[in-house]
Design brief:
- The protein is mostly helical and 270 residues long.
- It has a domain of 66 residues.
Length: 270
């Protein structure tokens, strides 16, 4: 057994040395290959690539890279107070209105527009004059006079309204007293009607001589009869009062006429 163990340990030691030598050889070979590649690279000739890109293209490319806002060129120009378009992009850009607007916004140099475009042509001036004749037919003096007359009319209307309000305010106390008198009269008439109704009911009860239910037919008939008689009496009293008032007026009028006749006869005798 012991000889076998010794042989086994010798084989293991031999294999370890062989593995170490193999790894060292691989590393050495790899290092030599890298050194050869470095030498070959140093020996290569240096070549220069011609820069065929123009300066303008290079500046344009750099400006495009600088534009981090992602805005369109026309929008970026407007942000920096520049003319939006270098060339016309639509028929609108050729109109007089648009060119005048660009001139007013960016100036003569910025808009690249002839300032004479802001002045009307002979045809436009003539049309404007004709329009003003129709739209404004009156002279300045005439319009001032009309305005002054309108102001006077408004002032007179306001003063008349104020006078009317003042007159009505003066009558306010009289109207208030009349209203209170009317209300008091209605209340008095209502109380009188209630008292008259109570009196008639009491008369009907005395007529029967015993307590009767107001809902009884006999009671209702007698009450209606009493009301008719009472209305006749009231009507007769009003008629007499009216006749008395008429007589008083006639007597007063007669006395005035007699006084006038006496005065006229006295003057005739003189």
């Amino acid at each position: 057994v012991r000889p076998f163990l010794g042989l086994r340990s010798g084989v293991a030691e031999y294999l370890g040395q062989f593995r170490t030598l193999t790894i060292s050889a691989v590393r050495l070979e790899k290092k030599q290959a890298e050194q050869e590649e470095a030498v070959d690279a140093d020996e290569l000739p240096v070549t220069f690539v011609d820069d065929v890109e123009s300066v303008e293209a290079r500046e344009e490319r750099i400006n495009a890279l600088r534009n981090k806002s992602r805005l369109l060129p026309q929008h970026r120009n407007m942000l920096h107070d520049l003319l939006p378009y270098e060339q016309s992009q639509s028929w609108i850009h050729e109109t007089v209105k648009y060119r005048r607007m660009m001139l007013g916004r960016y100036g003569i140099e910025g808009s690249r527009t002839d300032p004479r475009i802001c002045f009307p042509t002979k045809k436009e001036a003539h049309e404007r004059a004709e329009y003003e004749k129709v739209a404004f037919p009156f002279t300045l003096r005439q319009m001032m006079d009309a305005n002054e007359a309108a102001q006077k009319a408004r002032k007179a209307a306001i003063e008349a309204r104020e006078d009317e309000i003042a007159r009505k305010l003066e009558k306010l106390d009289q109207w208030t007293s009349d209203l209170n008198a009317k209300i008091e009269k209605k209340e008095r008439e209502a109380r009188a009607a209630k008292e008259r109704k109570d009196r008639l009911v009491e008369e009907v009860r005395r007529h029967f001589g015993f307590k009767v239910d107001p809902r009884d037919e006999r009671f209702q008939e007698m009450l209606a009869q009493k009301e008719r008689e009472d209305r006749k009496k009231v009507k007769e009293a009003k008629r007499k009062e009216k006749e008395e008032k008429m007589m008083e007026k006639l007597q007063k009028k007669t006395a005035e006429l007699e006084a006038e006749v006496d005065v006229s006869s006295g003057k005739g005798k003189k």
